[in-house]
Design goal:
Elements lengths: L1 H21 L3 H15 L3 E6 L11 E4 L6 H7 L1 H4 L2 H8 L4 E3 L4 H7 L15 E9 L2 E10 L8 H40 L3 E6 L4 E4 L1 H7 L3 H4 L10 H15 L4 E8 L5 E12 L5 E10 L1 H50 L5 H27 L6 E3 L1 H16 L3 E7 L5 E4 L1 H18 L4 E12 L11 E10 L6 H6 L17 H11 L3 E7 L3 E11 L18 E5 L3 H11 L5 E5 L2 H9 L6 E5 L7 H11 L4 E6 L3 H4 L11 E3 L4 H12 L4
């Protein structure tokens, strides 16, 4: 008896070891358990499990001793389907069910009908079913059968079967947990490795402990090389400065979402969004950080582009406002200057009236220069002329000296025989004034501003625009100020960018210079270093000097012909009459386009239409087209407070239209009228 008990004990010990080894897979557990149960307790056995819906699955695995009929499996597999509900409830509740020394009637209750005849000999004489229960849950049952006639199960057999079932249930529970964990790990590993975002794990000091394939691709390095490397090596200067604080935040258990710039292994940069969270161990202690990293380089580029578009819209809005102000102001200046000129011409030479009229004319000229600067900033509308750079610099000398102040030494270095350039003289003066103002601000304690001019020949590829080549005149404006760092240089020409702390600093100085130069067909280059100073080089395309037509004195600008003046401001319309009539012209004035059309229908035959461009109801161009439909030979001269560059984008003028810009004086008006009458369109 002791020997049998010891054998059973040893067998159970071996079973425990075998189940422990097999608990990584549920199928292995079931196979080991049924084989051991059949060998230790009964002639054959099998296990049937409960599905998630509460019903039994088919018999999963079966083992039978030698010479045991194959139909034993069918018998055990359907055992729970044929046993009465009371026995089944007891089995689910944890009780062991035993049928021993079954007679023919009992056997037929448990055996499938198709086997009643085959098994009528009573080859299955005893059945034992033990529940598999783990953590209070019914997992299924272990069924055993004996085939010896009259065989029974002793109490020792029943206890041994229970122990086998108990060990099996525990191992099965473990195996299922392992499989669920493995499935979960596989699922999360698949997510981590297939996500489009980078997954980056590092320890308390920022050293990489894990990275998925996408993170390695983003950094341009293999995963093997990335492990053990510090995050610091992949951050730009700003990111490195903030790294210690961010690691400290993780140690405090705080998560954070932020944007930063990473430097890839090849030196290129990419913008990312970091969603960083503390990484905890099993005891809940912070052992590092886990970051989800998204590449947002394109988003940042789009955002910067949107910011630049917004700035351009602001510039465009300011330009429209500046153009509108300049237009209305030019109309007023035309009346003021023209009236003053009429007064001066009628006054006694040397009289107070003449002196006051000339003062008014000078003030109006200053106002015209101001509106010209407004248009130069707002709409980049240059009127190109052949400009002598030495004459330009000589004329701007006094302006620049006043702008710089006595604490700054202004010097000029101008080469001889400079080529002529094609540009707007007023805009070039504005560009020089802006550069001087910037230099003055950079030399708060004094310094030297040097303006140099020389000729140069640029080969293809010598400028930022690789297609630019040929002869250029270089204007170089250099100061000994504070200079700029690389970050400031990269934004220097952006509208509204400024490093000045003073209130009202708009950041439009260099942006305006940039626009003036490029609208002149030129190029600009900035050289600057902190503590050394700044040099701005302007490359203006050279133009051969041409003979300008001589300017005739006013007394020689007399003419003849009928001029139809169309101007919606009555004061300005009458002023034009006062300026033209003494020169020999017949003048008819209309204050709106409809009245001008009526004059022609009434039989008027003007030689020249002098019309404002922007008028209510009908533009000057529309009026000219309508009148020319009846009189094709009618000559036309447009006048406007806007420049041609401002009007052209609006479709008001074609390239062949002649325009006199307000404010004008008698000389410029008579010259333009004489030229228009002398040229057929």
């Amino acid at each position: 008896m002791e020997t049998a008990a010891r054998i059973t004990h040893d067998a159970l010990t071996d079973l425990t070891s075998a189940l422990t080894a097999a608990c990584m897979r549920a199928e292995s557990v079931l196979d080991v358990a049924t084989e051991a149960a059949a060998r230790i307790v009964g002639d054959g056995g099998g296990i049937r499990l409960v599905r998630e819906d509460g019903r039994f699955s088919p018999m999963i695995t079966q083992h039978r001793a030698q010479d045991v009929p194959e139909m034993l499996g069918e018998f055990l597999g359907g055992f729970s389907d044929r046993v009465d509900q009371g026995h089944l409830n007891r089995l689910r509740a944890g009780a062991t069910i035993v049928f021993t020394s079954m007679d023919q009637q009992e056997f037929q209750k448990l055996a499938p009908p198709q086997h009643w005849t085959n098994l009528a000999g009573g080859r299955i004489s005893a059945v034992l079913a033990c529940p598999l229960i783990s953590d209070g849950a019914f997992l299924g049952y272990l069924a055993l059968a004996r085939t010896t006639p009259g065989a029974t199960y002793t109490d020792t057999d029943v206890e041994t079967a229970r122990m086998i079932a108990e060990h099996t249930a525990g191992a099965l529970h473990t195996a299922r947990s392992v499989e669920r964990l493995r499935a979960s790990e596989d699922r999360y590993r698949n997510i981590v490795e297939t996500t489009l975002d980078g997954v980056w794990q590092f320890d308390r000091d920022g050293v990489t402990t894990f990275a998925n394939a996408q993170m390695a691709r983003m950094l341009g390095i293999s995963r093997e090389e990335l492990l053990g490397l510090s995050v610091r090596g992949f951050l730009d200067n700003k990111g490195q400065q903030r790294l210690a604080r961010r690691l400290e935040e993780r140690q405090k258990g705080r998560s954070e979402v932020y944007e930063c710039r990473l430097i890839r292994a090849d030196g290129t940069a990419l913008w990312v969004q970091m969603s960083a969270a503390p990484l905890l161990d099993q005891e809940g202690q912070v052992v590092g950080s886990l970051a989800l990293v998204s590449d947002i380089t394109e988003r940042i580029a789009a955002r910067d582009m949107q910011r630049q578009l917004d700035q351009l819209r602001r510039v465009d809005s300011l330009g429209q406002l500046a153009g509108g102000i300049a237009h209305d102001f030019n109309n007023l200046l035309t009346v003021i200057a023209g009236s003053a000129e009429v007064l001066a011409s009628d006054a006694e030479p040397g009289s107070d009236v003449e002196a006051m009229a000339q003062s008014i004319m000078r003030a109006a000229a200053s106002g015209a220069a101001l509106t010209h600067q407004l248009l130069a900033f707002g709409r980049r509308s240059p009127t190109a002329h052949t400009v002598s750079v030495p004459e330009l610099l000589d004329g701007a000398r006094d302006l620049l000296t006043r702008a710089l102040g006595e604490h700054i030494d202004l010097r000029f270095k101008i080469d001889e025989d400079l080529w002529m350039v094609q540009a707007d003289r007023g805009e070039l003066e504005q560009a020089l004034a802006n550069l001087a103002a910037n230099a003055r601000d950079a030399m708060g304690s004094g310094g030297r501003l040097t303006i140099e001019a020389h000729n140069t020949v640029i080969d293809p590829g010598g400028l930022e625009d690789e297609a630019a080549s040929g002869r250029f005149v270089v204007l170089a404006v250099s100061d000994t100020g504070s200079g700029m760092d690389p970050e400031t240089r990269s934004h220097a020409f952006e509208p509204f960018f400024t490093t000045k702390k003073a209130r009202g600093a708009a950041g439009l100085g260099l942006a305006t210079v940039y626009g003036i130069v490029h609208n002149s067909g030129g190029h600009i280059r900035l050289v600057s270093d902190p503590g050394i100073g700044t040099t701005v080089k302007i490359f203006l395309p050279a133009k051969e000097a041409t003979e300008e037509p001589p300017i005739l004195p006013v007394e020689n600008l007399r003419g003849q012909g009928h001029v139809l003046v169309v101007e919606d401001q009555p004061e300005l319309a009458q002023l034009v009459r006062y300026l033209l009539q003494p020169a020999g012209y017949t003048v008819t004035v209309a204050t709106d386009p409809a009245a001008a059309v009526s004059h022609l229908h009434a039989g008027a035959r003007p030689d020249l239409l002098l019309t404002d461009v922007v008028m209510p109801g009908m533009t000057g161009l529309e009026l000219a087209r309508e009148l020319r439909a009846h009189y094709p030979d009618l000559r036309v001269l447009f006048m406007s407070g806007y420049t041609a560059g401002v009007l052209n984008p609006r479709g008001h003028l074609d390239e062949d239209s002649t325009l006199i810009q307000k404010p004008f004086n008698r000389e410029s008006l008579l010259t333009a009228v004489a030229k228009a009458l002398g040229t057929r369109r």
